[in-house]
Here is the input.
Amino acid sequence: MLMDVDVEQDPPLDLLALPNETLTTIFVYLPPPALVALIRSCRRLQSVCERLLYSNIDIEEDVDDDVRDPNAFVTPIKTDGCCTAVRRRPYLATVIKRISIRWTRSRRNGHRNGQPEHPLRLAPGITSALKCLLHMAASTTTLILYLAGFRGSYREVLDQCTFRLRTLSLGGRVAAPGVHAFEVGASSDIEWFLQHQPHIAHLHL
Here is the structure.
């Protein structure tokens, strides 16, 4: 004859009963899509996961994949969205440690038939938004900017930034008329900036 035996079971774990420090230790191993899903679940997890998500900003996007007219204005959607989010929630800027923004370009808008790559016509406000992000992210120690097709000056976005970098990587600019392509990444373009960054240990131009 079988007898019913009462087996004690552990109560289900209440995730929200854990302190923020423990949640951070757990969630730090999650990929960005999982963090985004948790951010959308409730305000408590939003507060924890937003700080993890924005501590390492890693953006890569094809900035002109859908652009048929080379004279049309281009808006890097992911970059603009990130800049807007930090501007609207300034507390996020305090947790940013690493910024990597890479713009790539579709083949039809790149080098073709031996012709040089044409510069991007960025939508009004994009350069200013990027500059605002970098100014706010004063705790950043790693900065990687590969802005394919960008004709502006590094000074436009880096001037008056107060972070103390350990790693700096810049590239992707398009030469202006009358400037040889190899001069685009010349260190003289940011020499003024490097003078105020004595802690840089890794530099790539």
The first helix runs from residue 20 to 27. The beta strands are 56-62, 98-104, 142-147, 167-171, 202-204. Residues 188 and 194 are 10 Å apart (CA to CA). The chain has seven helices and five strands.
